[in-house]
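Help wanted!
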Amino acid sequence: MTLAIVRRTAILLAGVLAASIVVFAFLAVLPGDSAQVALGVNATPELVERTRQEFGLDRPLVAQYLDWMGGVLHGDFGVSYVTREPIGPQLLDRLGVTLWLVGAGMLVALVIAVPLGTVAAVRHRKPSGALVSGLAQLGVAVPAFLAGMILVQVFAVRLGWLPSGGWTPPAHDPVEWLRGLILPAASLGLVQGAVLTRYVRTAVLDVQREDYLRTARAKGLRPYPALLRHGLRNAAVPVVTVLGLQLATLLVGAVVVERVFVLPGLGSMLVDAVAARDLLTVQGIVLVLVVGVLLVNFVVDVLYTLLDPRLRRS
Amino acid sequence: MSALLTVDGLRLTTGPSTLVDDVSFHIGPGERVGLIGASGSGKSLTASAIMGLLPEEITASGSVRLDGRQLLGAPERQLSRLRGKDIAMVFQEPMTALNPAMRVGRQVAEAMRLHRRIDRGAALAAAVELLDRVRLPEPERIARAYPHQLSGGQRQRVVLAIALANDPALLICDEPTTALDVTVQARILDLILAGVGEQGGALLFITHDLAVVASVCERVLVLEQGRIVESGPVRQVLGAPRHEYTKRLLAASTLEAS
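Answered by r_m:
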């Protein structure tokens, strides 16, 4: 088992390395010069040349890459060509906001999906089960930004219970932070929860047909306890797969929700950087997002081996 | 002698089709009864009906009584108290009958903890003893293993250990050796006989293997298309079959043996 984790860690590191090369190469081969792009069309050739030298853009690409990656490994993402500010600290701040948002959204999704999906599976022949399935189907069709706007309309504008947007750091005022997080997390989580509900339902239905569940019943366990003790862990394997994919989607998809709720997250930073043609910042953000997705995959792989002892042989 | 299990006019239907029709039989305490028939004749469904574990889409009518208590239509709470304690079951497919994500010892111990006041440690110790009773080598090691680390024959012994955990008055075996190697089959049969024999439990043995019935059972019921077409002592039914279907079954198995 330790060996399996070591192997997966190696795969993770190789993935990060490959991703960094791809991200760097992609922006390097884009037409247009970073300095020129940042300075705009009216910049004089002398100014562009000076900027190129200042940021080391006149050096060979390999040297530029090694320099960038060497810095990134120490948390130094370079200095923005546009704002002339170091990118790293801002990136870290923004990442924190996005992680809270995605984490809370996933929590909302899980809290919705696990009980509802289970009930929908156990009562799949009854009207209540069909109702849950139908609602989930409906939820899947709602885009997160629409859910966000509806939630704002109801809970912020009409009822005035929660702020319609903005961000308070948790260290600053935990209560205000939580109040600000509820609506964005709900708009991300409700939709993902609806998607996840359907997967939980399928997984539980499959597990219910398993022979070992019949064995559990034959021992004298009643239906729900049998499902809880013998079914959930086995049903968790396919659900974790979907959860991993959803987390990756959420991390990238948080862009929209951050816009709706004016949250200073990675997504809005990316949109701003793209708008300002701040290529080095874009490069840093994309790398962080890609590494985030790779990390999620890594955690999913490790979870598999914890959940299913059959996968521990290696 | 009053019967332990009395099945009377059992009828199982799903939608318009009748799967089992007017099945009646009884099993006395400590008696070993075989239920034979081709695939799809309703043997396993009859067993599921007795256990109260029929698939939702199947409706049962008639009566199934254990020690005089009506099981058919009894509330789940009441049935779950009997299952695994008074009636236990060994299934056909040992490869899938155990939870792949739980250690074997815990799965055996759970069968005891559900029906007795016994703490976790004592139950695990008793589970190791049970694994030893079904002749599993190194029972302590097996108790710590996951099902995928055991062979088919070893897993079936574990399933049997779970079934015998509370010394049931009735053990139902649904083709317990069909999925196993011929060399393993005989040993599992011996263990089943020893298991019910020690505590004077009764046995309902479902199979399509007439040789197995001859070696295990005292009495036999022949099921064809959901109806019992012949029944009586094993010697009589297999020695001088009266019903056409039984003759065909017998002829087919003699062919197989030669």
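OP: Thanks! One thing I noticed: The first helix of chain A runs from residue 2 to 29.
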